[in-house]
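As noted in the main text, all predictions were made from sequence alone. Below is one such record, for Enterochelin esterase.
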Amino acid sequence: MNRSIILTVTFMLSGVLFSAQTSDKQAPQGFDVENPTISHGKIDTVQYVSKTVGTTRKALIYTAPGFKKGNKYPVLYLLHGIGGDEKEWFNQGKPNVILDNLYAQGKLQPMIVVLPNGRAMKNDRATGNIMAPDKVEAFTTFEKDLLNDLIPFVEKKYPVKKDRESRALAGLSMGGGQTQNFAFGNIDKFAWLGAFSSAPNTKEPDKLLPNPQDALKLKLIFISCGDADGLMPFSKRTSDYLKKNKIPHIFYIEPGGHDFKVWKNDLYIFSQLLFKPVNKSQFSNFTVLGTPEATNIRNTQYPKILPDGRVMFKIKAPEAQKVQIDLEKKDALKKESDSFWIGTTDPQSGSFHYYSLLIDGVAVADPSSETFYGMGRYASGIDIPFEGDDFML
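Prediction:
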């Protein structure tokens, strides 16, 4: 057989917490493009006195279209990454445009969005060595600035609701780590958590939540990451810990890396879930991609395991006439392009499974996986975790 037939395999097991439902789980084209025919919110720069830092600090505040001082609004605090400041989201993420468009479609609860500078130090600009120890430490110090200075300022200056169920915290990268650290550490202050592509500043799960059941007090835990993001382990380890302790949450794995294409999509999805009744049993209705299987070779992205045990393959076999996966039963793949075949199996039981590719009826091992002796011959293998299995950690 021509070896070009056997090339790349993409394998996915779907089931972190979602099923294949894509209509409103991925931002549509144009979601971040300004629409001149609709009403627009307003972005203001504000200054507040920070006793924590000992100086006056800046933040941006977005008020929704139709904002009225006589109403009371919930608040989303939206945090930036290690190389940004209070303008990073505004300049690169277009939150005002994304939210304006969602308001026009009737998909959002009216809210105020605060874009602070998460680097709590006197010279809080993202200049020089952004990885310098004092600048990194300033992201930790921001917890005090947020709780003791910024939130009181917002609640004094703006018509906002002051209960924990009316406060959400979300952020990207370094801000995603801050979000997990601050929200899990102050469940009496926040009820909504959105951690996008969390960075290494994220505390280890047992330090984030020494008493995991405390997380049940949160209305929503939304953890997301691009499937090609090298920081995936920091998001996954939190999700694994929550899953092991039976804490309902969304673990949204999406196509992409560590960039605003991913984070804008995250904001689009997360914002629609805020300050509304939450049906945690529906957390499984999110489209996800998988994480690479432990038996993959050469750092290949596939096979991938997803929590419900479904398996999707994507095989590069340009000369094949028929491609099947032999995993418990034979599943035919559909040709997607001139080179690739795709398909999804039924959920598999939690255990070790042998599998083979069938290329025009010939059984071959998956070149992206380690090889094992099983099925009376050499075959590929995948270990699907079962509930309570520490493998997930």
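Helices lie at 88-93, 95-104, 133-157, 174-185, 205-208, 232-244, 260-273. The longest strand covers residues 42-50. These features were considered when defining construct boundaries for the mutagenesis experiments described in Section 2.9.
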